[in-house]
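Lecture notes, part 5. Sequence design as translation. It can be helpful to think of inverse folding as translation between two languages: the language of shapes and the language of residues. The source text, in structure tokens, appears below.
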């Protein structure tokens, strides 16, 4: 049996870890592809700062006002097939008590015999939208790296909630892996980024050997790329900048390039974010 086992939690959170909404978009696509039920949700009073992550209000079908609070929830498939199960952990990145937050979910995962934990995120990076989206796949677990040919990150510095969850999962005996998509930084306003979401799902499919229905994203990704092509065609400076990024990316992809190139880009991104995990762009 694969080291990640047959019951794998896939975790993604909005905010700092989610450029282009690529990671939360991947989890949303997984939820839409099957039927899920909530296993555990945190008490938002314990973990969220409402001045920072505010509740929202809406009117229901009868015109009554409702409040929706920030949340984080673990979901499991309602149909237990006996094959590999993908569980989902998603919500807003907490503002405080990260150790208690991670411990709460890992305790539930251990109680329910979760066998593997995969975190997915997305970062803004100096990459062209015209090339395949790079995925940095890593693990701090020797057996997972050997089984799947993953990298071991040597990054040191500020982290987000995904890294904290990985740490607590490994400490609890649950093997982990991490997938990060590189989203072109110059299209930050063109969110969501279905091309990055698609790349994450494709890599997750390879990692878990699960068939994941996401064909609709291929059409959306092509339309996303075409819209950026059209915008770039009207801006000579942007066109030249994209060409420079393409040349750099093609050098990375050449047979002579070091396999550490994407890992180094990932670590440069995190170092640039030296303002720490509490900072979330655009929020």
């Amino acid at each position: 049996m694969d080291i990640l086992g047959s019951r794998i939690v896939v975790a993604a959170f909005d905010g700092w870890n989610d450029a282009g909404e690529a990671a939360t978009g991947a989890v949303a696509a997984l939820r839409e592809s099957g039927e899920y039920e909530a296993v555990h949700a945190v008490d938002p009073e314990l973990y969220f700062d409402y001045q920072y992550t505010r509740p929202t209000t809406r009117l229901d079908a009868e015109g009554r006002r409702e409040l929706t609070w920030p949340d984080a929830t673990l979901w499991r498939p309602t149909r237990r097939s006996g094959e590999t199960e993908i569980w989902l952990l998603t919500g807003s990145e907490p503002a405080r008590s990260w150790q208690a937050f991670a411990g709460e979910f890992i305790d539930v995962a251990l109680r329910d015999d979760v066998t593997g934990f995969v975190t997915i995120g997305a970062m803004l990076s100096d990459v062209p939208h015209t090339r395949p989206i790079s995925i940095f796949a890593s693990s701090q677990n020797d057996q997972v790296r050997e089984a799947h040919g993953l990298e071991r990150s040597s990054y040191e510095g500020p982290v987000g909630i995904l890294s904290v969850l990985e740490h607590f999962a490994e400490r609890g005996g649950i093997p982990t892996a991490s997938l990060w998509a590189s989203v072109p930084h110059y299209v930050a306003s063109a969110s969501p980024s279905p091309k990055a979401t698609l790349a994450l799902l494709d890599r997750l499919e390879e990692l878990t050997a699960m068939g994941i229905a996401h064909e609709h994203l291929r059409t959306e990704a092509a339309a996303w790329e075409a819209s950026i092509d059209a915008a770039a065609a009207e801006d000579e400076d942007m066109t030249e900048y994209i060409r420079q990024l393409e040349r750099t990316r093609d050098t990375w992809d050449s047979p002579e390039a070091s396999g550490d190139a994407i890992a180094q880009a990932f670590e440069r991104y995190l170092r640039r974010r030296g303002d720490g995990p509490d900072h979330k762009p655009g929020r």
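The translated text above is only one of many valid answers, since several sequences can fold into similar shapes. Residues 216-233 form the longest helix (18 residues).
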